[in-house]
Design goal:
Elements (H helix, E strand, L loop, with lengths): L1 E10 L2 E7 L4 E5 L6 H13 L8 H4 L6 E10 L2 E10 L5 E4 L2 E2 L12 E4 L11 H15 L1 H23 L7 H40 L6 E6 L7 H7 L1 H7 L10 E6 L2 E2 H4 L2 H23 L4 E5 L7 H10 L5 E5 L3 H4 L7 E6 L2 E4 L2
Parallel strand pairs: 3-13, 3-14, 8-12, 12-13
Antiparallel strand pairs: 1-2, 1-4, 4-5, 5-6, 6-7, 9-10, 10-11, 14-15
The protein binds adenosine-5'-triphosphate (ATP) and magnesium ion.
Length: 361
């Protein structure tokens, strides 16, 4: 999979931009606030239909404009694809592939797979459970459409159930309605739990070797899925917590409360790991994500490295750059110093200045 070019119109701080990428390593460098991350956001959006930082469509439209357009040209297994995305202020986005409009945005998933790596990802192990769930969800949604569907349904029902719990007055009987929601919650929730379990197994097969290498043969890393409730117990757990849910007006059990722990040599490094250990494990996780996408889709994802190299010491930088193999990579950084001591070859360099980009080679 290669992104050949991208064209932006009124997207973030770009009025009009056309960029052609090389198939190897592409660097976008420039001072802060010039628009480097915005380019990666546009690429990520073309792959997942969502912003990597959770921005709304209207926030990505250039200030003072009504609409934004992104056109991405891809080469996937010898076939060319054109993805057109049209962001609107108050309506949902329009997407077309090779000129054919998609009825649902989710139909786009699977065409372009990307792995996004930013400095915040290095904190995924020390941060709270919601960030780890978000990582797992974002990844699974890219590689598994059923998961995406189940997750959307599940989230919708949790919201509706919570709303019912909030709106309910003590003299009305809501047990009938709750029962209906609970049955649906269990149906979708079980599938989410099973798929997360499988995902963690798949990741563990990959991360073990990567982390062993990265830690200089010192650490054996295992990811442990900690479901809030096992799939077969979910229905029962909902029943048991019903009174509590009514009292606190929210759904207190289910996969929206899941967590994942990272255990190195038998120690839970979420709680007991040093900062360096946590960051190394996070890097192993990202590298495993690349391998997993390759394995599941049979194709290389495009790697987006947002300002992440300056966060790593030279050993880890080298490891990362030497182990991504021959996949297309788009790297942002403020200066080119990071590469000077590296054996790494760069195929294309762009300088980003205030919403304009010039090629330097
Ligand atoms: N909707 C928008 N319309 C116009 N400009 C925007 C919009 N959203 C963000 N910007 C501008 O984009 C710029 C930030 O771009 P970006 O995050 O890509 O910077 P960067 O080059 O990655 O900087 P850093 O090195 O600090 O990460 C900011 O100056 C911001 O004001
Ligand atoms: Mg940035």
């Amino acid at each position: 999979m290669i992104i050949k070019s991208i064209k932006l119109e009124n997207f973030r701080n770009y009025e009009n931009l056309e960029l052609s990428f090389e198939k190897g390593t592409n660097i976008l460098y420039g001072d802060n606030a010039q628009g480097k991350t915005n380019v990666l956001e546009a690429v990520y959006l073309s792959a997942t239909t969502k912003s990597h930082k959770g921005s709304k469509d209207k926030e990505m439209i250039r200030f003072g404009q009504e609409e934004a357009h992104i056109r991405t040209n891809l080469d996937k297994e010898g076939m060319e694809y054109r993805v057109d995305m049209h962001l609107k202020k108050s309506k949902s986005k329009g997407i077309a592939v090779n000129g054919q409009y998609l009825k649902k945005a989710a139909q786009l998933l699977g065409l372009l797979n990307v792995v996004f790596f930013s400095p915040e990802d290095l904190s995924i192990i020390k941060n709270g459970p919601s960030e780890r769930r978000r990582f797992v969800d974002m990844e699974l949604c890219q590689i598994d459409k059923y998961y995406l569907y189940n997750l959307n349904q599940y989230n919708k029902i949790v919201n509706q159930r919570n709303k019912l719990l909030k709106d309910f007055y003590h003299n009305t009987d809501i047990s009938e309605t709750l029962h209906v929601w609970d049955m649906q919650l269990v149906t979708y929730g079980k599938q989410i739990i099973e798929r997360r379990k499988e995902f963690v197994d798949q990741l563990n097969e990959i991360i073990y070797g990567i982390h062993k290498n990265l830690s200089g043969d010192k650490e054996e890393l295992v990811i442990v899925y900690e479901p809030d409730t096992e799939a077969e117990n979910f229905e029962n757990a909902l029943r048991i917590s019903r009174e509590k849910d009514i009292k606190y007006k929210m759904t207190s059990v289910g996969p929206h409360r899941d967590d994942f722990s990272f255990v190195a040599n038998g120690v839970d490094i979420r709680k007991y790991g040093s900062q360096g250990q946590q960051r190394t494990a996070a890097l192993s996780l990202k590298l495993s994500e690349i391998e997993l996408v390759k394995k599941v889709t049979g194709d290389n994802p495009v790697l987006l490295l947002d300002d992440v190299l300056s966060e790593l010491d030279s050993n880890r930088q080298n490891y990362l750059l030497n182990n991504i193999g021959n996949i297309q990579t788009i790297i942002t950084c403020t200066g080119l110093d990071e590469f000077i001591n590296n054996r790494f070859s760069i195929d294309k360099i762009f300088k980003v200045t205030n919403g304009r980009i010039e090629s330097e080679n």
